[in-house]
Design a protein that fits this description.
The chain is mainly alpha-helical and 200 residues long. The chain is built from nine helices and no strands.
């Protein structure tokens, strides 16, 4: 039975959303097209009705994941709260639904340039939105880059350790404390309030 264009688009988005989660959990290379389509509830043969290649899907799935994170940052009242959430034990244990940069940075380094560009654009939005929450100063961009690097590095390291590792918890706790010190200044009056931000 031929499906409508609207249903075809919904099916395509379902595959992208599922791929976004699975790639973050298992990496690009470990997840096959068959795995993706089966998880989304479709047959392998339908894949090429929607995507030119697995790389094309990977780029879209990565962008989808970063857009999810854009929304998370926008919903956070303050940078302090975002940092605390980003570096939580819950985030550590849920790579499939949290930051794609922390989950896939090592993988993306071995992917084609198109996927690297999607990754760079996502990290750029992350940096820009954090800079918007810091006091307006020439150093805001540098401070935001520093905060992002510390958050990403801490989450990557913590995930690479056993769940029972006290060092993993220490890495998250220390990074949270240090990054929050940078965020505290964003709550100072005189800059339009903590809600004064651009879309990140």
């Amino acid at each position: 039975m031929r499906i409508t264009e609207n249903q075809a688009q919904k099916n395509r988005q379902k595959v992208v959303a599922k791929a976004s989660k699975l790639f973050r959990e298992g990496g690009f290379d470990r997840i096959s097209v068959n795995d993706l389509m089966k998880a989304a509830g479709f047959t392998h043969g339908g894949f090429y009705n929607h995507f030119e290649s697995k790389d094309a899907l990977a780029g879209e799935a990565l962008d989808y994941a970063f857009r999810q994170m854009d929304g998370v940052r926008e919903r956070m009242p303050t940078l302090d709260e975002f940092i605390t959430s980003y570096l939580s034990e819950e985030a550590r244990n849920a790579p499939g639904s949290t930051c794609p940069a922390a989950a896939l940075a090592g993988e993306v380094a071995r992917q084609p340039e198109d996927i690297k560009c999607v990754f760079a654009e996502g990290v750029e939005r992350m940096i820009s939105s954090i800079a918007d929450l810091l006091p307006k100063a020439p150093s805001a961009r540098d401070e935001a880059v520093d905060v992002v690097c510390r958050m990403l590095g801490a989450l990557v390291l913590a995930r690479a350790m056993p769940a029972s590792s006290s060092l993993g918890r220490e890495v998250l706790a220390t990074a949270t404390e240090r990054c929050r010190k940078s965020a505290m200044a964003s709550n100072r009056p005189g800059r339009g309030g903590s809600s004064s931000r651009r879309q990140g």
